[in-house]
Design goal:
Length: 195
């Protein structure tokens, strides 16, 4: 065997190894491209400084304000997430405020018709009551609020406060029905003596 043939003979396994390596890299790149294209199928929008007005029959009903809204909409799931908190203001037909809702986090699950509010949830209603909990879920189909977490409701100017684990209410957030409730109620001694 001449020296050129020997060199080729020795280079042949190295060339074969390089071809295999390049072929395996090509497969890996194809896999990465497939994964990337699947991720592109999931449209995600991020918006900052969001203000949304909900109306019914040309009358403003709700004003929603959040510093960040993340939206995902694909065939498996769809949601609007507000990871930096949300404030909602509810209006009467004459645009007077009938209530507010604030939370440190919220997520609207479109396919399930649910909005979940979490962490430092505070709700005020037209009766002057203030509801506090770490979770509140709004069912858009039933138009009801509910939670299974501990709750506190300040009943307004009387100074009466109710506590419980679990609560529910209608869309107007009045009245609240509290499970396993306790409370602090102030009694007017003068009224009691006059009876």
């Amino acid at each position: 065997m001449n020296s050129r043939a020997k060199q080729f003979f020795y280079l042949l396994p190295a060339l074969f190894s390089c071809m295999l390596l390049l072929n395996s890299c090509e497969n890996s790149l194809n896999d990465i491209e497939k994964i990337a294209s699947k991720e592109e199928d999931k449209p995600i929008n991020k918006s900052t400084g969001v203000e949304v007005i909900y109306s019914d029959s040309a009358k403003v009903k709700i004003r929603l304000v959040t510093p960040l809204m993340v939206e995902l909409d694909d065939k498996d799931k769809a949601y609007r997430e507000m990871p930096k908190g949300v404030k909602m203001t509810f209006y009467e037909d004459d645009l007077s405020i009938k209530g507010t809702l604030t939370a440190d986090y919220a997520i609207e699950k479109s396919k399930e018709n649910l909005i979940e509010f979490r962490k430092n949830v505070v709700v005020t209603n037209a009766q002057g009551e203030t509801f506090k909990s770490d979770e509140l879920i709004y069912d858009e189909t039933k138009k009801t609020y509910h939670t299974d977490k501990p709750v506190e409701i300040d009943l307004g100017s009387s100074g009466d406060v109710m506590y419980g684990v679990g609560a529910d209410s209608n869309a107007s957030m009045y009245p609240w029905h509290i499970s396993r409730s306790t409370g602090i109620f102030h009694v007017d001694e003068k009224q009691e003596q006059g009876k």
